[in-house]
Amino acid sequence: MSQPPPASGGDLRSSGGPPPPGPEDHVRGEGTSLVIVYGDYECPYCARTELLLADLPVRLVFRHFPVPSKHPRARALAHAAEAAALQGRFWEMHDSLFGDQGHLDDPHLWQRAERLGLDLDRFERDRRSPEVDERVTRDFRSGVRAGVMTTPTLFVDGELVSGAPPPELIERLRSA
Amino acid sequence: MIAAGAQAPDFKLRDQDGLEITLEELKGQTSLLVFYPLDFSPVCTDQLSIYQELLSDFESRGVKLYGVSVDSAFCHKAFQDKLNLTFPLLADFEPKGQIAKAYGVYDDEWGTSRRALFLIGPDGVVKWSYVSPSALEIPGANLIFDALEPAPAG
Questions:
Q1: What angle do CA A129, A80, A53 make, to 5 degrees?
Q2: How many structural domains are present in chain B?
Q3: Closest CA to A86 of A123, A61, A128, A124
Q4: Is B44 a catalytic residue?
Q5: Helical segments of A100-163, H only
């Protein structure tokens, strides 16, 4: 059997941790602790995690870890958030999606985009573009290399936390 | 647990469609046996779903995946449909867990396989194996890619 070399950037070996926040990342909040979340917009535990992390004094990075075989809309939703990002509205779309996981079909995405004042034609083009697809895939693969195997997975100042964060961790971050 | 360098124990198991698959038939290709506790349990669902997302990466490295649990072929079929899995799931069903026992990864207390991985070379020899410390811990896919492409000796 022929074994072509993996495409460039195709390395999936352990990276020893997630990449540090870069210019491509979505970052919000201020604080001494850095929390990198790998999540999926169709995952209820990820929505719960968002609520738990809201208002904590932390620097929060969100990366996409869509698992469509489990959550059929996960990939489309990650693309929608990235398409909104191209119009400067990533966190608004992010909050909108996690705020209501009962309405995730395409017509609901158009309604959300309109409410956020997005150019709908551009949103539609962008969310189906190869650039957005690659952007989401880069997040997913960086998570795989860092050992992410479920959503949500958090890296709290480098420490891997699998699943929704326990109350002790939330308290620790609140008083940090 | 069967370790790297050992001959992989032979098996004859039915897949989700009732077709028999033997280790002998897998010779000539690199195979990854993914032993997991049970169909439909939450952690197993995550594990196989994420491996499914990486299937083209496994295939581009010449690796074929086979899930193995003590569930029946009919149960495997339903689980495969539910998760849209496209790799075979093998039924270690009768005698229950016989192959998991042969590979040294049967959990007597739970009556299921433990969560374990065996990378088997084209010659039928185990190239790498891994067993999770607990059923709740999923072996990261990164570990499999580490085993497939060891870092160049420095």
A1: 135
A2: 1
A3: A123
A4: yes
A5: 106-115, 120-127, 130-145
Per-residue pLDDT of chain A (176 residues; tens, 9 = 90+): 333 333 434 899 999 999 999 999 999 999 999 999 999 999 999 999 999 999 899 999 999 999 988 899 999 999 999 999 999 999 999 999 999 999 999 999 999 999 999 999 999 999 999 999 999 999 999 999 999 999 999 999 999 999 999 999 999 999 87
Alpha-carbon Rg for chain A, nearest whole angstrom, is 16
Q: Residue B32 falls within a domain, yes or no?
A: yes
Best residue of B142, B144, B145, B146 to probe chain A, by most A CBs closer than 10 Å:
B142
Domain CATH number, residue B50: 3.40.30.10
Residues of B in Cβ contact (< 8 Å) with A70 = 45-46, 49, 83
Domain A27-174 sits in CATH 3.40.30.10: yes
Report yes or no on B142 lying in a domain.
yes
As for the ipTM of the complex, it is 0.90
List, as ranges, residues 23-62 from B with C-beta within 8 Å of A.
28-29, 43, 45-50, 52-54, 57, 60-62
Asked whether residue B74 is assigned to any structural domain, the reply reads yes
